[in-house]
Amino acid sequence: MPESRVNRTSPAGTSLVFFQLAPHEAGGTTLSFTHRYIPGSDTLIGFGAGWHALFESLNAFLTGGPGVDAEALYERLRPQDAAHFISAI
After folding, report:
1. Neighbouring-strand partners of residue 53
2. What pairs with residue 31 in β-bridges?
3. Which of 34, 56, 81, 86 could form a disulfide with 48 if both were Cys (CB 3.0 to 4.6 A apart)?
C-alpha cells in the first residue's frame, strides 16, 4: 500500500488533524495520528478522551474483538485525562 496522508481542518481553522497510513514492516498498516492547535484546556481534555475511545473502538472492530462502549469509555477517561493534563502544567 502506498503511503497516504489525510489532512482535515475545522471550519473555523482552529484545529488541524493528520492521519497517515503506511505499510508496516511486519505486515499490516501503521496509522499515525496528530491533532494540533486545539483551543483551550477544556477542549484538549475532551479531545484526548474522545480520540482514545475512538481508537479503542477501531481496534476492537479491526481485530474482531468485543465491541467497546465508546461513550462509557470517554466518561471514564475524561477525568483521568484532566488530572494528567493539570499535573503536566
Report:
1. none
2. 21
3. 81
Long-range CB contacts for residues 60-68, cutoff 8 Å, separation at least 24 = none
Return the closest-CA partner of residue 36 out of 58, 19, 60.
19
How distant is the alpha carbon of residue 67 from its chain centre? 17
Which burial class, exposed, middle or buried, applies to 35 when counting CB atoms under 10 A from its CB (0-12, 13-18, 19+)? middle
- Ordered by start, the domain boundaries in the chain are 1-38, 40-89
46-72 residue pLDDT tens:
888 888 888 989 989 989 999 889 889
Angle, vertex CA 10, rays to CA 71 and CA 87, nearest 5 = 55
Alpha-carbon span 38 to 17, nearest angstrom: 10
Q: Crossing angle for the helix pair 70-88 and 41-63, nearest 10 degrees? A: 140
